[in-house]
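It is worth pausing here to work through a concrete case rather than discussing structure prediction in the abstract. The textbook approach is simple: state the sequence, then state the predicted structure, then interpret. We follow exactly that order.
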Amino acid sequence: MRFAPGLWIALRYSFARKRFRVINIISAISLTGIILGVSTLLVVMSVLNGFQQIAWDLFVTVESPAQVLPAEGTHMEVPDSLLAQIGGIEGVVSAEPFAEGSAILSGKENSELVMVKGISRNAHDRLMKQTGREVPYFSRETVSVGEVLAYKAKLAPAAEVKIFSPELIALGLQSLSQPYLLPALTFPVVQVESVFSLQRIFNDHYVLTSREMARRILLQEENLYSGIDVRGSDDRATHAALVRNLRSWVQENGLEDSYVIRPLEEKYRDIFGVMEIEKWVSFSVLMLVIVVAALSLTGSLTMTAIDKRKELFYLRCLGLEKPQFIMIFIMEGGMIGFAGTAIGAAVAWVICSVQKTFGLIELPSKSAFIIEAYPVSMQTSDFVVVSVATIAVSLLVSLYPAFKAAGIAGSKNLSDQAN
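Step two, the predicted structure:
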């Protein structure tokens, strides 16, 4: 019952005309500053999310959002029963074994240390679909190399190269004293089927091929794989739930000693970590703009308390107590903060929606990027965090004028001032 009158008085104090116009001007400046700060912050965070989304989309052309890896060693058995169990987990769309490891690529002129990844036929078809390629990247006995790697090794389609595991070097040294190892020293010679351009990391040192060829290069046994690529829906927002479900499955079945779950962000933590830090550093910096705008509320509310000292006296005579006076001015500051936050969030949503649909603001150097306009990806969590932080700041800066108003209302000389 006491809350409703306080809310009504706070609304009246917020929007009623003051005796001193400067109070209205300061309040308008505070509201405008909060609107601009919130909208700018949300737009910047959404653009940074957009760049993260593009990086994510490029990585998942070859990698999967999550991988099941052996807890110990580099190889694991993958029976059909294991694939069936993983496939039955909520959110899992596909589970496919892969073979991956370091190898040495030896061309006619030089050699390069590369990463060989062998993928299934389904994964190959998915890669072709995602990149819009009509002809296969590789066949069962050929490979596809990144364009930067091809340039460094001076490779072209139809060229023949030797790709072998570093373990062969160790076997070669052992064969000097153990001649029976000589038959194992065979260096696979493969043909380059194509040169791909996907993502810089892949372009620099990746070789893609079939699982069978990768196992032969990496000296893996027929029934062993490096891990299992697990994919969910294409929506990145569902990725966290997918990882949680996989880890819950491992724990519920007591498989912690056998398998570990590695999300894509963990495998490439240097890249995604820097992008996430950049996002929250931007949040911290731009949040200062909101704090400065909110601090002007302190002056506005304090001047309102002085301007309304007669009304405060009458309210005290009507029976309002000190906590209620404090609540009135805290609610007034909170309402201004809430209004600024709501309007700022709505403005940010409109700007981001227009940019996402029409791409009006283009990148300064389109030739240097794979996209022409600034990408945008709005996340509900960002809107919630910014809104809660802004309203909390507005409430905090309202504490001083609220106690000031309570002090004025309880002053012994207030009766004389009112008269």
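Step three, interpretation. The chain has 16 helices and eleven strands. The radius of gyration is 32 Å.
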